[in-house]
Amino acid sequence: MATANFVKFGLFALFLTLLGCERQVSFADDVQPIMLASCVECHNESAEGYAASGFSLSDYDSVMKGTKFGPVVVANSSASSTLYLVIAHKTAPEIHMPPHHEDAWAEGRGTPLTDKQIETIGAWIDQGALNN
Prior knowledge:
By secondary structure, the chain is mainly α. The chain contains seven helices and no strands.
């Protein structure tokens, strides 16, 4: 009986430990697909978002380079990262991304990222914004 309780306790402790472990977010597997599906249409070297800001989301190096105004990702701090702040709508409305204006809607753009997508990008930044 004592052995069975010990095993149950051990499994329970393992379960609690696993719950506390946050899954490592991968740039290649988790973040880049979001950017390719929702952002790169405007933020590539031949598009309007790039022309306005110099910001390309084509690959990891471009994301980490940032805009012509400076970096947009502060590794380990989504709260300090402009990329996160604009997609999470924690900035002035005119710089929210994707853009939310009538021209963007008419062109089929401007659909906000889902909460899960925003959370994924925030977690990737908070985990060090690794090229993984």
